[in-house]
Design brief:
- By secondary structure, this protein is α/β, with parallel strands linked by helices.
- Helix content is 42%, strand content 14%.
- Strands 2-8-7-6-5-3-4 form a 7-stranded mixed beta sheet, sandwiched between helices. The protein has a 4-stranded antiparallel beta sheet with strand order 9-10-13-12. Strands 1-11 form a two-stranded parallel sheet.
- The protein binds pyridoxal-5'-phosphate.
- Pyridoxal-5'-phosphate (PLP) binds next to α5.
Length: 399
């Protein structure tokens, strides 16, 4: 008899984003669950990609990326973070931030290495660490401020700790790491000779004039870092899957050894188009934070009279709502109910934590955390319509 297939990721289920988007479609709900913009990518960018295709620029690019694009990213880094680096040696264009994260993890994590990640965590980190033979050490961040306890981080470091993954601006909580956070991170990294993977895909979306504390601003930290970004988030084109990784030359060269056998290179016409966009329309990036801050204001104002407690969103295009005054359901059940009965799809926070549905300790998690995530990368009309539906929710006693 054939033996059963031994899965390398036996506990992995369908992602919560897929689950909630399918449910939203099925019930024709307004989909504020999955994080993708409702509006289109800039016309100039589309026309540049079309032109590149028509001009026949349709073959492989160099594995690390089209040189024009690498140089434009280098200039962007210089403008934003005052870091001068050699773009052709330090920057690698990837198929989305997802590939950059994956390759960075494969580059540094060896068998039995430990990697510290903060929950709620973006869902691609842990499977990548596991497939590299590593183990994730989860540190939970808690409502309402989701701040990192660096003393706890220090205590969690042991001789097997190899890396720390940070994400700021943070999905799903919308919080930012501060200068003091970055300095404490830098200190621990230097003292313990760790590496950092800094997921900065929402780097240009911070609100109320607060600056993004990129790892690229901290020279000693950057020496041991892979900084990951995504053009999908910056240019409203998540479906193109285009991102990049910035690392010092010796780390970038190791990263590229793996990247070349994962994808080799990324869609050439889009790289050419984005290089032109960065050069001709730098204002798109400088205006992005204001563009999303407006959307946050629309949604938050429209929810003012609802029974939700709105947690502060300092960056990204997400906001968290505490529904403890509305329902006793757990967050997963509440999101299903909201989609089916109210017509608004949201994302529960529990799948971003180590102890997920059905697993040990999950009930205690639910008792403390009645929080859901809404995506506000939507048109004003959609946000107002969804908010009006959410304002109709009555009190707890209803269910
Ligand atoms: C925190 C975070 N990291 C990485 C990604 C993946 O980015 P990409 O679509 O460019 O692969 C996302 C996308 O939602 C994200 O929110």
């Amino acid at each position: 008899m054939q033996s059963p297939f031994q899965s390398k990721l036996p506990n992995l289920k369908t992602s919560i984003f897929t689950e909630m988007s399918l449910l939203a479609n099925e019930h024709k709900a307004i989909n504020l669950s999955q994080g993708f913009p409702e509006f289109d990518t800039p016309p100039f960018l589309k026309s540049q990609i079309n032109q590149a295709i028509i001009e026949g620029k349709n073959q492989y690019s160099p594995s690390s990326g089209v040189p024009d694009l690498l140089n434009q990213i280098g200039q962007l880094i210089q403008r934003q973070y005052q870091l001068t680096l050699e773009p052709l040696k330090c920057i690698t264009v990837t198929s989305g931030a997802t590939e950059a994260l994956w390759v960075a993890i494969q580059t540094i994590v060896r068998q039995n290495d430990e990697v510290i990640i903060f929950d709620p965590a973006y869902d691609s980190y842990e499977p990548a660490v596991k497939l590299a033979g590593g183990i994730c050490r989860h540190i939970a961040l808690n409502a309402p401020d989701y701040a990192v306890d660096w003393t706890l981080v220090k205590k969690s470091i042991n001789k097997n700790t190899r890396a720390i993954i940070v994400n700021s601006p943070h999905n799903p909580t919308g919080t930012l790491l501060s200068k003091s956070d970055m300095e404490q991170l830098q200190q621990l990294v230097i003292e313990n000779e760790l590496y950092v993977i800094s997921d900065e895909v929402y780097e240009f979306i911070t609100f109320d004039g607060v600056r993004h504390e990129s790892a690229l601003r901290y020279p000693e930290l950057f020496k041991r870092s892979f900084v990951v970004s995504s053009f999908g988030k910056t240019f409203h084109c998540t479906g193109w899957k285009l991102g990049y990784c910035v690392a010092p030359p010796e780390l970038a060269s190791e990263f590229r050894k793996i990247h070349q056998y994962v994808t080799f290179s990324t869609f050439t016409p889009a790289q050419i188009g984005i290089a032109a966009m960065l050069k001709e329309h730098p204002e798109h990036i400088t205006e992005l934070a204001g563009f999303y801050q407006n959307k946050r204001e629309h949604l938050v104002n429209a929810l003012k009279d609802s029974r939700f407690k709105i947690l502060p969103s300092a960056g990204t295009y997400f906001v968290l709502l505490d529904y403890s005054d509305i329902s006793a359901l757990n967050d997963h059940e509440f999101c299903h109910w909201l989609t089916k009965e109210i017509g608004v799809a949201a994302i529960p926070l529990s799948p971003f934590y180590e102890n997920k549905q059905g697993e040990e300790h999950h009930e205690s998690y639910h008792q403390q955390n009645k929080v859901i995530r809404l995506c506000f990368a939507k048109n004003e009309q959609t946000l107002l319509k969804a908010a009006a539906m959410l304002c109709q929710l009555e009190q707890k006693s209803k269910h």
